[in-house]
Specification:
358 residues, Rossmann fold, globular, 15% strand
Length: 358
């Protein structure tokens, strides 16, 4: 289940981190830990300016959902993840990352219960969720620990800026800087700064190539794009709004999100709203079923619905079969894969331009 099911109704909490040192790469054994510690202390601040200081890399981390988990796995800090909530679906993560993710204890299929989180023995809780009031991080979806309870349990509480801060950002989310910023901050926090820099450089290279390729296309001439969240239900469509990371993915790919005027992350709309916008392209966004054949079956079902539903069968994209079969997670869950999705969308919308800039 994706975190946006909660984030859409919550106020956001910002996270800013600064490494007071070189962010030396962590290694094995005591020597490696000592090398990593030389990059410390690292200070992490929430949007209210309250700072949390780390004098050494955390040793036992619990993540609230798949976003933080994937970042830590890609950074090579997976051996320090002691549990997660909202685990990624089987096959959601590529190759070896999926195998590693399957080994991480699931403390909650949705929000981790308060007692289980506080009793996890973690020294860091990496939180992707905003809260309705204060720094609880779980909003109205559960009995969230208070700051004092986290402190009593010896757990430091850090937020992912790319997901927890959406509602508090000023204006639409235009790029992936919050995502790359989280990767860099987690690199500093876990002593894996070198790996973080490599991941960010790879993302920047892919997105920059796309941006260069479509730079000459005026905004008004860029194709309009509808993210069809098929698994959210077909009775009432769910709009991907301008503060969700998926909006930045679509924008960086050179497309115009038809619900760019929707302020927030996700919001229920009507099929009349979709028809009025008559998109040039539609992404058939389905959740990863963990199997290629099952995914294709879900994509087929999403396309079949749009082609048969009276309200949508006349849409330009539907009549011209301009569909993109790209999963939900790679678009809406913050992570390294967002840059790959930017490329996939752009290569479909601008095949000649983008391929020339590979």
């Amino acid at each position: 289940m994706r975190p946006r099911m909660m984030c859409g109704v919550m106020a956001a909490v910002a996270v800013l981190a600064t490494g007071c040192g070189g962010g030396t790469e962590a290694g094995g054994g005591a020597d490696g830990a000592g090398a990593a510690a030389r990059g410390f202390p690292v200070k992490v601040a929430d949007c209210g300016g309250k700072e949390t200081t780390f004098s050494a890399p955390p040793e036992k981390i619990v993540t609230s959902n798949a976003s933080g988990l994937e970042m830590l796995l890609r950074l090579g800090a997976g051996d320090r993840v002691a549990g997660t909530g909202f685990p990624p679906g089987k096959g959601t993560l590529p190759g070896g990352l999926d195998r590693q993710a399957r080994k991480v204890p699931v403390l909650g299929k949705a929000v981790i219960p308060k007692e289980k989180l506080l009793g996890s023995g973690a020294d860091l809780y990496l939180d992707a969720f905003a809260s309705m009031g204060g720094m609880g991080g779980m909003g109205g979806m559960g009995d969230a620990p208070t700051d004092k309870e986290f402190e009593a349990a010896g757990i430091k509480h850090v937020f992912l800026s790319s997901t927890a801060c959406a509602q508090q950002q000023k204006g639409p989310r235009k790029d992936l800087s919050e995502v790359t910023g989280d990767i860099e901050r987690l690199g500093a926090l876990t002593g894996t700064g070198k790996r973080a820099a490599e991941l960010v450089a790879g993302m920047d290279k892919k997105v920059s190539a796309v941006r260069t390729a479509v730079d000459g296309v005026p905004e008004r001439k860029r194709p309009t794009y509808f993210f069809f969240d098929y698994d959210a239900g077909t009775k009432q469509p769910m709009a991907l709004c301008n503060k969700q990371v998926g909006h930045a993915v679509i924008s960086q790919a050179g497309a115009r999100n038809v619900f760019a005027g929707c302020d927030g992350d996700f919001k229920p709309v009507s099929w009349e709203d979709v028809v009025d916008r008559n998109p040039d392209w539609i992404q058939l966004a389905v959740r990863n079923r963990g199997d290629k054949a099952a995914n294709e079956k879900a994509f087929d079902a999403a396309e079949r619905f749009l082609r048969g539903f009276p309200a949508t069968r006349g849409l330009k994209a539907v009549k011209e079969r301009k569909f993109l079969r790209i999963g939900s997670e790679a678009t809406t869950i913050a992570g390294v894969g967002n840059a790959d999705t930017v490329q996939r969308i752009a290569r479909t919308l601008y095949p000649g331009k983008v391929e020339a800039n590979r």
